[in-house]
Request: fold
Amino acid sequence: VQLQASGGGLVQAGDSLRLSCAGSERTVSTYAIGWFRRAPGKEREFVASITWSGGSERYRDSVKDRFAISKDNAKNTVYLRMNSLKLEGTAVYYCAARYYADTTYKYWGQGTQVTVSS
Reply:
């Protein structure tokens, strides 16, 4: 299982950004995919996830009205649309894969930097 996160960049507060997580063959149709982030000086935290079937999504409370996770099985890609970005959204964002029978995410991408400026 290989994952490649991309789409990060420098944006202003209030802007939108879409991150992509490209998986190796059939990864996104077989595994739950989660997005996590690590802000400077802070622990890594959960942001959003989508099940292998796409039938269920989860979000951390602080983003659930602004972020949207989606997937395209044909492209083996999961997206994280981030709207109304806030300064505290500055972090390295990682995508990860979890097999449905597992309780933890075992496979991680390399991360993409998102910087939100005022």
Q: What stands out?
A: The first strand starts at residue 3 and ends at 6. The CA atoms of residues 23 and 96 lie 10 Å apart. The radius of gyration is 13 Å.
